[in-house]
Design a protein that fits this description.
The complex is a heterodimer of chains A (512) and B (302). By secondary structure, chain A is mainly alpha-helical. The two termini of chain A are 50 Å apart. A six-stranded mixed beta sheet of chain B has the order 6-7-8-3-9-10, with helices on both faces. A four-stranded antiparallel beta sheet of chain B has the order 2-1-4-5, with helices on one face. In chain B, strands 12-13-11-14 form a four-stranded antiparallel beta sheet. In chain B, β12 and β13 form a beta hairpin. In chain B, α3 packs across α4. The radius of gyration of chain B is 21 Å and the shape is globular. Classes of the chains: A mainly alpha (512), B alpha/beta (302). At the A-B interface, α1, α4 and α5 of A face α3 of B.
């Protein structure tokens, strides 16, 4: 059993670490560690307690790195490792593995361990960068290994265990494997942030101790801590923080996190099908329910309409085909949801329509838009496409307009209401928002050749922008007046054109 | 060592049966599995390889049900699927070590086996080269090598000669002949010549049914008076294609010599000829869709 596990871990580790993307990941994460520690003159800070931050000595950097890693690694690292069983499935290595005597437990344990090793190597790279940053800023030249390492061991390592186990769990459950799982995890992460900082487990205890230390040194009526990126025009006051010693309380506070990891692994073991569905699922025929018949008939009518309006040029004909390609294979329930959203757009107040429903309708389409730009890579059709006489630019523009058509379809009822109410500025913003969303999907797909990038980035934009009304990220402009005053629609339009042009250039370059 | 398949059926939701009550038993030797695309060969092989489960029926290996206890077979199984992937960042030797580990081989024994197999399949010189740099034929040979790592008592190979050049195909056939004396080999292919010289039994499948299972000699005898040849002009060839089952044509000036299979010959100029396994395949796939009864199907090659 040990040899089986060892070989499984060794092969998977080699496969994943020998890829160029692994080195790039290490570099990017090291860069991120550099951004975690801004220079004293910087206009942002990442950890400030009551307006104070510790000098960059090993104790402060160690705790700071642990706090930031606990917040941000779950979202970054999950998407890095949630592809290992999928790779075996897609590459058909699973056909060989499934016929061997390896047990589900050993296979999943090996995958979990490799996830953990890769994530640990990332944290090690960040730790080394942190040490270099300490020397670079020179606020303290004394490198103390233990104060740097123990917060990572106690607080970050269990988080890595959870990420590794949840990634395995999401890959083991059929409906969590794809884009839905990616989006769901994003919202789970959002929900967990507050709990992890303010809760009495994990880094919450560390932060509370840090706040208490600052309060002892610099008494204040209220305590306020800022973690993450905080804009600060004035330079913060620094102080020498000696750090805190590791205690059994710290270890105990991480036990619930480890329990979640074990539970996730256990559930993965229950749900993992040992590749039984690798090839049989495609043979399952769709049911011929009343709903299917209704959607089929509506689809045929819709296609007739598309055929009649798209016959005037080769590009419009291609546009129709791209629309069909986007919506082919979608679940019946997706259409039901879309119709539900359209009906809701008719009855809610205008405020709810613009602040909630229209952005929600776009988010609803994220999994349909995410393949834009990476379809030929996913379906291995590059060579077939490359010798067609139809130009890649025209094909890309057809793809862009097909995506726009889909988003338009998801919001046309609301849009019609806004037109009737003569809300021309918001109407213009809807069109700009549609263009931006599709251009972003195309850009992400073209640049990274995977649909996952858009599935991660778009919900993040959506949450910070339209949902949290952060003016400079709000591509839709839910506060319409403030948005126009800040010229945001125009900026978004420029960004949209830039994204589209970059995608077109990349596609042209790769097709020659 | 015996493999027993009883009334094995596989049905996908809402679709026609992929396997329809297949029954056969086998001990050792080579069973060549022939059949058109969609006949159910790969479905049958995936069930025998313990990857997928049937809708109904039973498969036993050495008396143990492998549907409910797949591990009873897996340690003794070698499987080469029609489509398979590799970890392309690993070298050939590393990938074989990985699969040897999964099959439970000790490292020292695995090293010996891997060295031998890499030599046998002419891959020693690229043993340390990453699989991403292998040609299609080299990857296929790595696939065959991994199937043989654990000296399998049951070897299941699905389209093993795809991507191999004629020399490699001949070597493969020789290797299967050499190892088949004390194990059971089930070899599926579209290429009749791959199995005609090495198979002890040939099974023909069509539309999920096992149409026939017999020795090559028996199958050839069964077509003894049904194989004909005649010479026609090019213009008549199209009409002939509609009337009879053509297995082979040879151009000769403006005329064409046509080899075909038919119960009666049909043409006055036609003469009887020796049947080939191509004729057998065409005849059983096209003219005898359900010609076998389960009780007929027993393959026991001493």
């Amino acid at each position: 059993m040990i040899n089986q596990l060892k070989q499984c871990v060794a092969a998977d580790l080699r496969q994943r670490t020998r890829q160029q993307s692994y080195l790039i990941t290490l570099l990017v994460m090291s860069l991120l560690a550099m951004l975690f520690f801004p220079s004293p003159e910087s206009h942002y800070q990442t950890l400030v307690v009551n307006g104070y931050r510790g000098i960059y000595n090993s104790a402060w950097l160690g705790v700071c790195l642990a706090l930031l890693n606990t917040l941000f690694l779950p979202i970054i690292c999950f998407y890095l490792v949630k592809n290992t069983i999928t790779f075996d499935r897609q590459s058909l290595t699973c056909e060989l593995i499934a016929a061997t005597p390896i047990s589900k437990f050993n296979y999943l344990l090996a995958k979990f361990l490799v996830n953990l090793l890769i994530l640990t190597s990332i944290v090690l790279a960040m730790l080394v960068t942190t040490m270099l940053m300490q020397l670079y800023f020179g606020e303290s030249y004394l490198i103390q290994l233990w104060p740097l390492i123990w917060p990572q061991l106690v607080f970050v390592f269990p988080i890595l265990c959870v990420i590794s186990a949840i990634a395995i769990l999401f890959e083991s459950i059929v409906w969590l494997r794809g884009g839905f799982g990616n989006t769901l995890y994003f919202f789970i992460w959002i929900g967990s942030i507050v709990h992890s900082v303010e809760g009495s487990t994990g880094v919450g205890t560390l932060l509370k101790q840090l706040e208490a230390d600052v309060l002892t040194k610099f008494p204040a009526e209220q305590t306020s801590s800022n973690i993450g990126i905080t804009a600060s025009e004035e330079s913060v006051t620094t102080f020498v923080w000696e750090g805190i010693a590791m205690s059994s309380n710290h270890l105990l506070s991480m036990l619930p996190i480890l329990a979640i990891a074990i539970l996730s692994f256990g559930l993965a073991h229950i749900f993992f099908d040992r590749f039984k569905q690798a090839t049989s699922s495609h043979n399952d025929q769709a049911s011929t329910s009343l709903l299917t018949k209704l959607i089929d008939k509506t689809g045929k009518l819709g296609d007739k309409l598309l055929v009649s309006i798209s016959q005037f040029s080769a590009m419009s004909r291609q546009w129709r085909l791209e629309v069909l390609l986007l919506i082919k294979g979608l679940s019946n329930y997706w259409y039901v949801g879309l119709v539900g959203l359209c009906i809701a757009q008719l009855f809610v107040s205008q405020t709810i329509l613009t602040t909630v429903l229209i952005p929600a309708s776009w988010l609803y389409c994220v999994l349909v838009l995410s393949p834009l730009g990476s379809q030929s890579q996913t379906h291995n059709t590059k060579e077939l496409m490359s010798y067609c006489s139809f130009s890649s630019s025209k094909q890309t523009m057809s793809l862009f307009f097909a995506g726009c058509c889909l988003l338009f379809l998801s919001t046309f009822v609301g849009l019609a209401r806004l037109v009737i109410l003569s809300q021309w500025l918001i109407v213009a913003q809807v069109f700009i928002g549609i263009g931006f969303s599709v251009a972003l999907a195309l850009f992400c797909g073209t640049m990274t050749q995977t649909r996952r990038t858009f599935e991660v980035i778009y919900p993040a934009f959506w949450y910070i922008g339209p949902m949290q009304s952060a003016l400079y990220v709000d591509y839709f402009g839910v506060n319409s007046q403030a948005s126009w005053q800040a010229n945001m629609p125009l900026y978004v339009l420029i960004v949209t054109i830039a994204l589209l042009t970059t995608s077109l250039t990349k596609i042209k370059l790769t097709s020659h | 060592m015996s493999l027993e398949i009883k009334n094995l059926s596989l049905e996908y939701k809402g679709a026609k049966k992929a396997l329809n009550s297949i029954t056969l038993s086998a001990t050792s030797g080579v069973i060549g599995l022939l059949g058109p695309n969609g006949a159910g060969k790969s479905s049958l092989m995936r069930i025998l390889a313990t990857i997928s489960k049937p809708t109904s029926g039973q498969v036993t290996w050495r008396g143990q049900d492998i549907i409910t206890h797949p591990n009873a077979l897996r340690a003794e199984l070698g499987y080469l699927p029609q489509y398979f992937g590799v970890y392309d960042q690993l070298s050939g030797a590393e990938f074989l070590h990985y699969l040897a580990g999964l099959k439970g081989l000790k490292h020292s024994l695995a090293t010996q086996k891997i060295d031998k197999l890499l030599g046998d399949f002419n891959l020693s010189h690229v043993a340390d080269v990453r699989l991403s740099q292998y040609s299609g034929g080299m990857r296929q040979r790595i696939g065959i090598a991994q199937a043989l790592l654990n000296d399998p008592a049951l070897l299941i190979v699905d389209e093993p000669t795809v991507g191999l050049d004629p020399q490699e195909r001949a070597n493969f056939r020789q290797m299967i002949s050499d190892i088949a004396s004390d194990r059971l080999v089930i070899l599926s292919t579209h290429i009749v010549s791959d199995i005609e010289t090495i198979s002890d039994q040939i099974a023909i499948m069509n539309a999920g049914n096992l149409t026939t299972l017999a020795t090559p000699q028996h199958l050839l005898q069964s077509l003894g008076n049904k194989c004909w040849k005649t010479t026609v002009s090019r213009e008549h060839l199209t009409q002939l294609q509609k009337d009879v089952l053509i297995s082979h044509t040879i151009r000769q000036g403006n005329d064409i010599i046509v080899h075909y299979v038919d119960e009666l010959g049909k043409f006055p100029t036609a003469t009887i000829r020796e049947p080939t396994l191509e004729d057998v395949y065409l005849y059983y796939v096209n003219c005898q869709p359900n010609s076998i009864t389960p009780s007929d199907v027993t393959s026991e090659v001493a």
